[in-house]
Write a structure and sequence with these properties.
Helix content: 40-55%
Distance between the termini: 11 Å
Strand content: 15-25%
Largest sheet: 3 strands, antiparallel
Structural class: alpha+beta
Mean pLDDT: 78
Number of strands: 3
Low-confidence stretches: none
Number of helices: 3
């Protein structure tokens, strides 16, 4: 059976146009990935062990950014059991 976070991320990949930066921020907070946005148009998501992902808020989310975010969450939650 898939973990809950895998189901959420699968839904994210299926409906990428429906998701916003606030959705990514909520998922990050829920799964222990910190994020910050200074006085810029970029949001930085940081893995507990140092890996980070920077996404511009001035443009719509792209599939490649969502996939990279998914990998970041997978590392933060269960590196030994990746989503399929």
């Amino acid at each position: 059976m898939k973990h809950t976070y895998c189901l959420l991320l699968d839904k994210l990949l299926e409906n990428e146009r429906m998701w916003t930066f606030s959705t990514l921020q909520s998922l990050a907070e829920r799964y222990g990935v910190s994020w910050y946005q200074g006085n810029t148009e970029h949001v930085v998501f940081k893995h507990p062990y140092g890996k980070h992902l920077t996404i511009s808020t001035s443009r719509p989310l792209k599939t490649v950014q969502i996939v990279a975010f998914k990998h970041l969450l997978q590392l933060a939650v269960t590196p030994e059991e990746p989503c399929e």
